[in-house]
Amino acid sequence: MAYTIKNADGTVLLNLVDGTTDIKTTSLTLIGKNTDAYGTALNTNLVNILQNFASIYQPRAPLTGQLWYSKADGRLKVYTLNGIFENISTAFISQGQPGGLKQGDLWIDSETERAVRLGPMELRTSFCVTMPGAPRPAVTVVLTPFLLIERSVGKRSCAGSGR
Questions:
Q1: What average pLDDT does this structure show over 98-113?
Q2: What's the pTM?
């Protein structure tokens, strides 16, 4: 009797016939019932998952939500509804600009309490933050793919405060 393999949302991905393996439907080798020598495929699957498919090449047949660590640019990516792998942005906290920033990264300068997001053309100061223990008003920052919204929780906003 075939295995019915389902996606996380419950939709059927594949009916896997007994004694077969499938290497076309996903980035893993799916193993059917009563398949000989299944141990190699199973263990390779586990290592691939553990390493987030780390390679210079993107995984074959990715599924929405799948992670991939690109050895080509040293970035963790996620397969989106758009059918492409997109970078998962990184946040850095340091005094002074760290090296290796790439588009989409967020850097919080712990000395000046300014947050900087790397945009398409240049680094742009985007908003202020209040570091833990600092005697300044707290700031809530909401990040969306296209907007940076700043809202002060204290009496004065850090926007335009020269910090």
A1: 74
A2: 0.63
